[in-house]
Amino acid sequence: MNLKERFSLSRFVSGEKAVDAPVTLNHRRIFILPTQRGLGFVLLITVLLLIAFVYNNNLAYMLAFLLASIFFITILHSYKALAGLVVQKGRSKAVFAGEAAGFDIHINNPTDRERQVQIKLQDAQNLAMEPHSTEHVTLYSITQKRGWHPAGSVTLSSTYPLGLFRAWSPIRFDLKALVYPKPAHLEIPFPKTSSAQAQQGFSRKGADDFYGLQEYQSGDSIKHIHWKAFAKGLGVFSKQYGGEQSLEEIRLDYEHVPGHNIEERLSQLCRWVVDAEQAGIRYGFALPGLTLPPDHGLTHYRKCLEALALF
């Protein structure tokens, strides 16, 4: 690392280059500055020295030098509060746009000292670490749009032991979460095609066509309540049916999705994928350059949502 990189302001705020390997905190990664309490402590020492000088009071000198020695010794203890910790990245889970992405971080304390540290991404968490222990924490970051969402800088800090100094270490990992499009709020029925359009048609069996979901209204049959959505806390919805045959298989094609722009069409397509999976319907899926045969289940569901996220 050259001199320019060593004193770059971004290094003190965002940390060094993103890495995959575990990071051990040492003198190169830990930074220390006085806190507001520490600056007040300096002011107190200065006042005591002025009093000692004006009145030639040896006791005031002794008290000022004693407090100054405590001030400087605290720098070493503040550094040791973080030194030696080993920080390692974990996994991240995919979420829908607008939700908080969770990033797993593992912190190992291989020393004989107890640690009082704080770890922060967007929100801070306080940790009390026993000697030779490992803490597993999940840090959250609010997502805004689909695609890959990087974790950003994870900051470990401590004001141990007296709160006079803040020692901190910003760390960047090559860690990111996949963000799916936000499902459309509007409940539009699944697309229908005539039997002549076999490539986009339905395979029908049973009683009525399943058109989609809508919010439960007074008078709707209890048999039509979508209990899976209710159990997941998504609200109370009623299954909507029509015609004389049930919809057992559908095809969701980007070219036939309503919307004014790409994001609206992807959002609606995402809503149909979620609704079809929750209803247990086999669904085909098509984007420009990608076609998936009709299927259902977690693997198929994730493939469809990943394709939408990275489209």
From TrEMBL:
Annotated keywords: Membrane, Transmembrane, Transmembrane helix
Residue stretches spanning the membrane? 38-55, 61-82
Question: PANTHER family under this entry?
Answer: SLR1927 PROTEIN, SLR1927 PROTEIN-RELATED
Name of the protein described by the UniProt record: Uncharacterized protein
- Which taxonomic lineage does the organism of this UniProt entry have? Bacteria, Pseudomonadati, Pseudomonadota, Gammaproteobacteria, Methylococcales
